[in-house]
Specification:
single chain; mainly alpha; 3-stranded mixed β-sheet; 3-stranded antiparallel β-sheet; disordered N terminus
Length: 443
């Protein structure tokens, strides 16, 4: 088992230029005892690093390791093997910002590229061709010049313990990030460079897994909308647990809304790229991503909903109900749903119940970005007053938040059996932006 580099504590190295940071750390990080062989799974599957490693929403760790690839060594930020693409996305965003400032020929841009390859050496990552089962590791698709052979794959997945796709949120985070980096390099260089092409293909490959059906190793369940004949509805599966045998067994609401929101954004990025570079066209990809986003939106109110036999849920399945089946206004939304069992659940772990509040608010944030994109003629399912709720489904969700905000987000509130209306805790007690409420109330 390889040795780990000792921590150097906090540093403000990123405030300066990346090149200076690399020089400052070179004598430390390049020592043989600290070398990490990325083409061996021990690069990630070694002793866990401590809690001062990369933190969600913070950015890059200050700890550097020597990443060895195709006979060359590069310094990158160490990442825990259990960190998904969602957790490392802030670091990539930070490096993208540095590359945008310093230019495509800078040490910042080099670090961004090498950091990306390092993440792709994670033992949970596989490259493959759509519809095929020949899953490849990074070492199988990279050559001696540290370049990816783009002919060997058009799909890129971060899979779970059962070796299946399971998290459309992480997939869309990585795919969209790659396309944004591609757009950045295109703007900087004025043409599609070799490195820009790599980021584009990585992005499209990651997004392709989301839109592929489960039978092809993807994350989409698609069927005709039960409440809108002739329209297709889709659910993009995403779950926190990594031990499910079946992709469609998991349906975490906020995680499944991320791709609905961000596939549309990915289409927008590609549209901007096509405007910048008239030598290429992504029109079919743009149409497919937008259509997938709309189908995911339709599923929320026009989809059949759960039948307890594997059918994907709709938004109503996440509304808490009493034992008698009456919707509970004074409750947060359920966090997750198991379509195979037809059962929803809150996050009830001791010390984590505040997250039910946080994720209810996050769902509102996601919906405030997603729903205004719908043409007015397609919003009826969201704005229609439901007899069982007394208001529209969107108003029901907003009302729960407003009731709790009126009583205080920092304390517990009364609810009914099967409901959860606890404190938002210190981490989630900040009120939502008025713009979120306005967007949802103005549909």
């Amino acid at each position: 088992m390889p040795l780990r580099c000792p921590s150097r504590g906090s540093s403000s190295w990123f405030a300066g230029r990346i090149a200076g940071a690399l020089l400052a750390f070179s004598c430390w990080a390049l020592t043989p005892a600290c070398a990490v062989e990325a083409l061996d799974e021990q690069a990630f599957d070694a002793e866990p690093i401590d809690t001062e490693g990369l933190a969600v929403g913070v950015g890059c760790d200050t700890k550097l390791v020597n990443f060895q690839l195709a006979g060359s060594s590069h310094q990158v930020h160490e990442v825990r093997s259990d960190y998904t693409w969602h957790k490392v996305n802030p670091c990539l965003e930070q490096l993208q910002g540095a590359a945008g400032k310093d230019g495509p020929a800078s040490a910042s841009a080099d670090l961004l590229y090498q950091q990306t390859l390092y993440l792709l050496s994670n033992p949970n990552v596989r490259f493959y061709k759509q519809g095929k089962t020949d899953y490849l590791k990074l070492k199988h698709v990279v050559n001696g010049k540290e370049k990816l052979d783009l002919s060997k794959f058009n799909r890129l997945v971060y899979w779970n313990e059962k070796h299946i796709a399971y998290d459309s949120m992480s997939q869309v985070d990585f795919g969209l990030r790659m396309l944004r980096i591609y757009r950045l390099f295109l703007k900087q260089e004025g043409k599609l460079s070799e490195r820009g092409r790599v980021f584009r293909e990585l992005g499209l490959a990651a997004l392709g897994v989301i839109t592929d059906p489960i039978a092809d190793g993807g994350l989409r369940s698609r069927s005709e909308c039960a409440h809108w004949k002739g329209k297709a509805c889709a659910w993009f599966h995403s779950v926190t647990r990594r031990d499910f045998d079946e992709t469609n067994a998991g349906a975490t609401l906020n995680k499944s809304l991320h791709p609905v929101r961000d596939m549309y954004e990915a289409a927008q990025v590609l549209a901007e790229v096509d405007a910048l570079d008239t030598t290429t066209s992504h029109s079919s990809r743009i149409d497919a991503l937008r259509q997938a986003s709309f189908e995911g939106t339709y599923q929320l109110v026009y989809g059949k909903g759960s039948d307890g036999k594997g059918s994907a849920p709709n938004l109503f399945d996440f509304i808490a109900t009493t034992p008698g089946g009456k919707p509970i206004q004074r409750s947060w939304l359920y966090y997750g749903f198991n379509p195979e069992l037809g059962k929803a659940h809150f996050l009830g772990n001791k010390g984590n119940d505040w997250k039910n509040c946080g994720y209810h608010m996050h769902v509102m944030q996601l919906l405030s970005a997603i729903l205004p994109r719908l043409p007015q003629s397609e919003r009826a399912g969201f704005t229609k007053v439901r007899a069982s709720l007394g208001v529209s489904v969107v108003d029901f969700i907003v009302n729960a938040y407003q009731v709790k905000a009126g009583e205080g987000l920092g304390g517990d509130s009364k609810t009914q059996t099967n409901g959860a209306f606890g404190s938002c805790g210190e981490k989630a007690k900040t009120p939502l932006s008025p713009a979120v409420i306005s967007a949802l109330s103005g549909l």
